[in-house]
Structure formats: C-alpha cells, structure tokens
Amino acid sequence: EAGKIADDVGLNAYVVGGFVRDLILGVENFDIDIVVEGDALMFSEKLAQHYQAHLTKHDRFGTAVVVLEDDFKIDVVTARKEYYEYPASLPVVEGGTIKDDLFRRDFTINSMAIKLNKSGFGNIVDFYGGRRDLQMGLIRILYNLSFVEDPTRIFRAIRFEQRYDFKMEEKTEEFAIKAIESGILGKVSHERINFEFFAMLKENNIWAILKRMEDLRILKNVYPEVVLSEDLKKLLKNAEENLACLKEKVSVQESLDRTLLYLLILYSNMSFEKAVKLSEKMRLSKEYKSEILKFIEANDIILSNLSGNIDISNYDVYNELKGLSMEILFVLCMLSNEKKFIDRVILYINNLKNIKTCVTGKDLKELGVKPGPEYAVLLDKVLAEKLNGNLQTYNDELEFLKK
Ligand code: ATP
Fold this sequence. Notes:
It is built from 21 helices and 11 strands. By secondary structure, it is α+β, with helices and mostly antiparallel strands.
C-alpha cells in the first residue's frame, strides 16, 4: 500500500535499516523505517490518511511517525545526505538519494533497503555489501572515518555483535580501537553515551556486552566509576542463571525490571559517594537513584544480619527486608553465597511480605485505646506475633490486643 501511495505522489519509497536486516535474518521487528526520495511529510500524510492512523510530524526535521497500533509504527524520513564538520559533531543534513541515505548509516548490515514502488517492488537495494556481511556475521563500517564522526556507533557495533553473535570485521575493530585510544569518547555528551548504554541494558546478553566494553577499554573511558572486579565479573556472568533459579523458587507475578537489576549489580561494590556521582552522570531517574542508594547503604548490614545459623524470627526477617524492591531482594541473593540467607529472603517473598494485621485502628478505638503513637506500637506487636505464627484469626488478634 505504501508503494502505491508512493507511485501516486510520484516518489520512490523504501523500507530501510533494522527492519530489512531482521527480515533477512528471520528475526521479528515491528519498527518500520521508510525513506522517500522527496517530501516525507506529504507522503506520511497520505499514508496516515490511507490507514486512518495517527500521525506525528516533526516539521523542523522533515520527519514523521505513523502509529498504526501500540507497538506498530512507521517512521518516515526524506532521503538525506549528511556530512560532519568536525569529529563527533552533529551532522549537517541536506536532501539526497537513497544511495546517499544508505551511505550515512552505521554498518553495512543496516544499510540495505527494500523498494516499495510497483516498479521494482521487493527488490533489495544493497550498495555496500550488507547481505554478504549478514551471511558472514560481520559488523562492518561503511567508511574509515565512521567511528570518528559518530563514536556512538562503537556502542552500536558491540550491541549488534553480541545480539546476533556476530564479530566486528577486522578493519572495523581496528578503527574502533584507534578511535577509543584517541580519547574521542570524551567528546561525546553524557546524554548520547547514556542513551547507548541503556539500549545495551535492554539486550539479552548483558554480560557479553559489558565484557566487550571492558576489553575495548570503553568502560574506563565513559564510566570510570564502574570497576569490573573479579567478584563483579562473576556476579554478572552468573546473573541470568541465578535469576532463573530464583524465579523458580519464588512466587512473583510482577515482572522484574532488568535494567534496574543490572544497575544494582554494577553499583554493588561502589562507595556511596561514587554512586551518587555516577547516578548523576547517568541521569538516572529519581526512582532508580533512590533504589540504588538505598541498596548501597543497606546491603552489607542486611547480608550480615540475615546470614548465619542463629535463629532469627520471621518478624526480624520481615523488618530487615520490608520496603525493598524485588530487584534489590534478588541482587542481595546473588551477592550472598549462603543458603541460609537466600532461604530467608525466599521465605520473606513467598510467605511474609504480604502479611498484614486484620485488626486496625478502628478495633483499638473500640477497645478504648486513646488515638496516638501507641496505635502503631500495638499494631506492630500484633504483626510480630502474626509473622511468628502465633496468631491465626482476626479473633486471635483481638484477644491478643485485649491482653
Ligand atoms: P534495533 O533493533 O536495536 O532497534 P535498529 O537498526 O532498528 O536496531 P535504530 O536505532 O532504530 O536501530 O536505527 C534505525 C536505523 O538507523 C539503523 O538500522 C541504522 O541504519 C540507522 N542508524 C541508527 N543509528 C545510527 C548512527 N548512529 N549512525 C548511522 N546510522 C544509524
């Protein structure tokens, strides 16, 4: 249909980039990018009209997004030619052909297009050897200065490498290493680095990605606060396995926030001061920041208080762990190698976390207790008895209160 619309308005239109790559690989991808040789805004209006879809236009950039369903959208841009005035700058843009547009892309595997117009429909446009590299499993830049012009491509190279189990082509890797050694990452804004880093944390193979970042000395350059000590490496390497193991043992419905989980692991051996500094550099949300700092402040104490064979009451376990997110609880288990500790956390998640008293302030009032701070103390006493298994029913709780 898009092809027909393109024919109607007399423009060439192509699907490009990641969608084409994943189509050839047989991987699902719901992000469609269309490039038109000409007025993208006019084309996107017709496209949105045809599908009766929502359209968001960015007039300043001449780009538009047609939203068909929640997770199905089409980005439309005008084919363009880009050049960089100095290393790591943002590019200067002007109109161009599909060939120009594909040449400004990061890697050969992302530089293919499929024609949508009736004449040539379905033809793969591959000027730079994308199909060959897909077959050989290679991430290859299109021109020697690619990483110098846009160093964030180094992060993308690693991400695609690990996602598809590909390798950087030899020269490409050499250019990446040279660019890193020249200190170019220091010229990129924190925002752009963070954007790439958080895209990495969305991938499946986070350990492999971080290891590659470490080996290429990228981590040292962008986040020197993160020190991959042997312990931390082990933690990261085993994270997915431990996670799966824990998930089997606990009855959690909520899905875990993997980004937060890995951030907690990465911050786990950091001092409070360093963590504050890094969380600001990473522009973490207030929620993430407070989770991480809470974790750093408490993890040593919790680990030591809940380890060992001495008897600890359920109430004490509860008090130690209450208010901690599932992500923190999981990472605590990963940090501990004591079965006793892990058992206590699992007991908390499965049996204690959701226990509440049946009696409320209203009952206390009816029993003639004057409203005040004593309410909290009394209710907490009931909760302690209940957690420790001494009270079963509402009546038990009432009787206990009366005493
Ligand atoms: P993903 O599956 O991770 O979304 P993608 O290839 O679709 O991968 P996007 O970030 O959506 O990635 O980018 C879409 C396309 O834009 C890429 O396929 C690539 O051709 C091009 N692109 C993205 N970032 C860059 C960059 N920094 N330099 C050059 N081209 C880029």
